[in-house]
Records
---
Amino acid sequence: MARPRKRRRVCSMPNFKMFGPLNNSLDEKESIILTIDEYETIRLIDWEGLEQEQCAERMDVARSTIQRVYSEAKKKVADSIVNGKILRIEGGDYILCNMENKKCPSCGKGYHRHGRNKQF
């Protein structure tokens, strides 16, 4: 029996969920799906400048998992840019930070950072 997949911790949902070329001649069937956890990996490594080890700690998974997720996410973003495909951010195996204490247990940031997001 395979080990159950561990859900990745995500601190916030993306504000924008669809990207693509300005001409609307493309069919949405040609779109690429970037999962929420792949988005969070790109956000933490490329936007916040964290190392893969730090990203893994924040998302509560192994560094090797982050390396694999990050590699797959970069390929999807590159495919979207190079081939002019629509990139949609949705789905994935993730859990949102628990904000009951008004402080994220993963990143330590306060409610102002996460307040606009719905919590499960």
---
Amino acid sequence: MANDALELPLDVAATRPILEQIANKWAVLILSVLCTQPARFNDLKRRLDGITHKALSDALKRLERNGLISRKVLPTQPVGVEYTITALGASLREPFAALYNWSLANGTELTGAQLAYDGMRRNGAFKEEV
């Protein structure tokens, strides 16, 4: 490895179950929204373009189960629920911000690489794997 490269041990058994809970697209986006302020279910659904009711409900339950968000029933008619990020969830703010900023800075390059790859595949530049 290069001298300036960060060397990390690869403990897949220890990290995979955790990353499966926090690194999916909806979890990252939900936590990013809740980092700024608490939100109700329909507010989250409006802000997360493309998420289905079921996907949001399932993701919120997973995040609550993992201690990353808390759920508070509001004394309103009809009964409302507000979701708030916990201290554990807020500890993901910095890494998620870095990932978000990376995606903004590199999205065009990523799209260009995808288009180049797809063009080479269409033109037969790759041998099919067996």
